[in-house]
């Protein structure tokens, strides 16, 4: 699933391609909006909100999209062949005189009044890349349920918006604790560092084509996608297991030597061979 930095990049692409221009093409390929035509309306802007995208049009309309696991927005120039998947996966097309934005595999696509945006994003916590970022509130949200596993608290977009499985794993590694540690057991000095560290990681990557957390030339990430390769610090094999109630696939990576705290409960699904390849050296 795309994380906050990826969604920020998608918002920038859409904004640069469409903002300030009237639509010359409007095509929604979902039954609910099949007859809606926004041709002639000027695009005002596109902004990210956590993992959500809000594209606003004159006349007080907003297109709300969420990329989920496989969705993407692609932008093409005039006459350029669309490349993002087969035609049956296209859910929306927004075109101007010189650019066309094509939304593939969008699992969430909703037109609403701009005044109603809070209905779809009002539940979100402080946005790590947004103007509403509030580190004290974000930390208080994470620690509000002290018995909850830290990894689960970080993924909860109601606590802070923008973290997914990659940053969950990387943050826990950098804090030196496992994602299964109860949030209330996080040492005070590390808890104090958490909001600022999370923000720095996402800000550092919002302009990068390849996500990087290590600062090393050969290796992009410390643990995510590295099982069962050696930890970059201690050379212990990195481990991977699913975290959560099993309703979603949430591969979670950690180093059992560098990170203190509980491991997955006995019987939890564990993958010793990484089935999620990443460019991590």
TrEMBL record:
Pfam families in the record: Fapy_DNA_glyco, H2TH
InterPro entries: DNA_glyclase_Znf_dom_DNA_BS, FPG_cat, FPG_N, H2TH_FPG, Nei2_N, Ribosomal_uS13-like_H2TH, Znf_DNA_glyclase/AP_lyase
Region (Disordered): 258-281
UniProt keyword Cell membrane, yes or no: no
SMART domains noted in UniProt: Fapy_DNA_glyco, H2TH
Catalytic activity annotation: 2'-deoxyribonucleotide-(2'-deoxyribose 5'-phosphate)-2'-deoxyribonucleotide-DNA = a 3'-end 2'-deoxyribonucleotide-(2,3-dehydro-2,3-deoxyribose 5'-phosphate)-DNA + a 5'-end 5'-phospho-2'-deoxyribonucleoside-DNA + H(+)
Keywords, sorted A to Z: DNA damage, DNA repair, DNA-binding, Glycosidase, Hydrolase, Lyase, Metal-binding, Multifunctional enzyme, Zinc, Zinc-finger
Gene3D superfamilies: 1.10.8.50, MutM-like, N-terminal (3.20.190.10)
Matches recorded under SUPFAM superfamilies: Glucocorticoid receptor-like (DNA-binding domain), N-terminal domain of MutM-like DNA repair proteins, S13-like H2TH domain
Domain FPG-type stretches: 222-260
Entry similarity comment: Belongs to the FPG family.
Name of the protein: DNA-(apurinic or apyrimidinic site) lyase
